[in-house]
Amino acid sequence: MVASVREILDKVRAEGRTALTAPEGKQICDAYGIPTPREGLATTAAEAVALAKEIGFPVALKIVSPHILHKTEAGGVLVGVADEDAVARGFDTIVADATAYDPSAEITGVQVQQMLTGGQEVIIGATTDPTFGKVVAFGLGGILVEVLKDVTFRLAPVTADEARSMLDGIGAAEVLRGARGAEPVDAGALANVIERVAALVTDFPEITEFDLNPVFATAGGATAADVRILVDPGKVTDPVRPSREEILRVMDRMMNPRAVAVIGASAEPGKIGNSVMKNLINGGYKGEIYPINPKADEILGRAAYPSIGEVPGEVDVAVFAIPAKFVAGALEECGAKGVPLAVLIPSGFAETGNVELQREVVAVARKHGIRLVGPNIYGYYYTPSNLCATFCTPYDVRGGVALTSQSGGIGMAILGFSRTTKMGVSAIVGLGNKSDVDEDDLLTFFEQDDNTQCVAMHLEDLKDGRAFVDAARRITKKKPVVVLKAGRTAMGARAASSHTGALAGDDKVYDDVLRQAGVIRAPGLHDMLEYARGLPLLPTPRGENVVIITGAGGSGVLLSDACVESELSLMDIPPDLDEAFRRFIPPFGAAGNPIDITGGEPPATYEATIRLGLEDPRIHALILGYWHTIVTPPMVFAELTARVVEEARANGIDKPVVASLAGDTEVERASEYLFDHRIVAYPYTTERPVAVLGAKYRWARAAGLIGG
Fold first, then answer.
1. What is the topology classification, in CATH, of domain 120-231?
2. Is 45 exposed, middle or buried (0-12, 13-18, 19+ CB in 10 A)?
3. Alpha carbon separation from 498 to 228, 289, 372, 687 (Å, rounded)
4. Pair 308, 338: CB distance under 8 Å
5. Max intra-chain CA distance, the chain
6. Which residues pair with residue 140 across a beta bridge?
7. pLDDT digits 0-9 by tens, 179-197
């Protein structure tokens, strides 16, 4: 199988071609078990007639030329050719039209192909994404593919389950299942073709784009009517990646350094080097701090050194607070000293157009085996080590959330939000230009970091999407990862020589591949921060049954809508449970789901219904909708809810509970109280608590943690 494909591709590339002919494409499909129609190559009209008689009428005729990629544009396709005379005339017409379209084109012959009819037309393909490498695509096919763009992507190769998930990942999934009485397609056959295409492009990375369009999917199978394959004639190389062990060795020294040097340390207030020194000292860092400044003997009570080479002991991290033009020279000295990691705070590199200077710095670092964080960053925090290696304000509320950002401005927002909400943080890391260390390095560390339970990342791009996915797949089995990806618009129009290439807009690929990796994608900055704050508080649900208990019918409707948006399943309440809830609510209330206890009920009604929701094992998560009344004031609701939930936890019942509080300003304090007791609660919104719960569910499903 592999040998025959290798022979074909080597021949094509040796000839300097970037596209395979249709017969070559069929040979490759045959080698990988991808079903195609019966067909043959005719070099004369007589041969075409003989082939058509053997295959059976009607047939399709297609020009075969290594120089004509767009056969339809060249007048090189005829379909539904019904008899011998029509085949003979069609052969001559196609050859004449193709020759007129490109007089210099080499005409190999005409492909005579069995006509496929019936079933549903879909597209299956693969393309080479600049961020993630080989991705496989599936969607509606035929002439509407680029109009409707109902397509989904996965990173290649794919598992059988991932291939099947693609069939459900398009808007028209119901069509494949047999809408309006139509016969459903053979989902197993379609998924099998997806798997084989993904395996092919993985085995042969020189294949840049692969199109099967249309694929005719019927109840009896799936057959590709047309194949287009493009290749890269040059050498294909994999990116160089450090091993997981090497990443962990350096990242551990970054987060738990025994000694930090500040290159450009200053005694002058207002200087970045002064702020970094103050934060390291005042933050409580217990390791050695070495200020580096050739013009000072002492800075903030610490002996200063003219260069890092004169520091008496080992240095794990060098924090740079000097102008960009001096960084390369100082980095050479770090290399001679054996410093494993440099944190480059200065700006003035690629972000301002000075790409060459950044390349020079990277080259120096690689020569000496130094990992670089930045440049153009605010530094980083790691609270378990009391490490505040930044010029920003200190932060010392320890917890399980690690946050990263490419942008300094977003970093400041992260810091401010964390401080305002008192969110417990394990790390805050700026990545800036990402000349070296990036998100997959940090995920590799956070995966095994016992101090981190959740990771939230703002990113504008990924240097190596496949390395990120590999790291994300590992960590998301144990801990949630939330990503805010800036730049949601698809890449601008570009000349694409295949349908798959034209459909692979940046954001759609990011969306599908991040989901494939088990990552939760946040729609906005505040969402990312709220997910990061709330997810560690919520226990993992044990099933899909969500129940809403509300004191206001209007809130119940909005909460139900939010559940649909957040991919949550409202439980179909069985009769015995319905009767149990009705014992606690007034006759004019409403059981079912949402359970409307009405607004005038006393605290006892809230308490009884919440307790029932927690104690019944068929219910897996609770959404509470509170309405401010004098009968049950906000803090009374908050305190009784926290008490009932804590009593359940003491008895081994720990379910996700979120709350939406509507009312006057008192609900703000009540929401804070609930958050302090591990109940995710927000005032004035029905959407946000449900969105956080939905994010928890998406992670738990991806990690395979939800039972029946």
1. D-amino Acid Aminotransferase; Chain A, domain 1 (3.30.470)
2. middle
3. 8, 57, 39, 40
4. no
5. 99
6. 122
7. 777 789 999 999 999 999 9
Domain 242-376 has CATH 3.40.50.720: yes
Range(s) for CATH 3.40.50.261 in the chain?
395-488+495-537, 539-702
Q: Which of 175-189, 344-358, 495-509 has the lowest mean pLDDT?
A: 495-509
Whole-number Å distance between alpha carbons of 139 and 686: 34
* C-alpha dihedral sign at 66, 71, 77, 79: positive
Strand partners, 210: 126, 229
Helices 525-534, 408-421: axis angle to 10 degrees equals 40
Say which CATH superfamily domain 2-114 falls into: ATP-grasp fold, A domain (3.30.1490.20)
Strands 39-42 and 109-114: antiparallel
Q: How many residues does the chain have?
A: 708
The continuous run of DSSP H or E covering 168 comes out as: helix 160-168
CATH topology of domain 395-488+495-537: Rossmann fold (3.40.50)
User: CATH 3.30.1490.20 occupies which residues in the chain?
Assistant: 2-114
Cis peptide leading into residue 594 (ω within 30°): yes
C-beta separation of 139 from 170 below 8 A: yes
Give the model's confidence band at 500: pLDDT under 50 very low, under 70 low, under 90 confident, else very high: very low
Q: Tell me which residue has tokens 């040796």.
A: 14
Q: Dihedral of CA 438/444/447/451: which sign?
A: negative
**3-state helix, strand and coil shares in percent for the chain, rounded to the nearest 5:** 40, 20, 35
Domain 539-702 has CATH 3.40.50.261: yes
525-534 vs 687-702: helix crossing angle, rounded to 10: 70
Tokens of 283: 């933050």
CB atoms within 10 A of CB 587: 5
| Structural contact between residues 510 and 485, judged by C-beta atoms closer than 8 angstroms | yes
Upstream peptide bond of 683 is cis (omega within 30 degrees of 0): no
Average pLDDT, integer, range 344-365: 96
CA angle 688, 689, 690 (to 5 degrees): 90
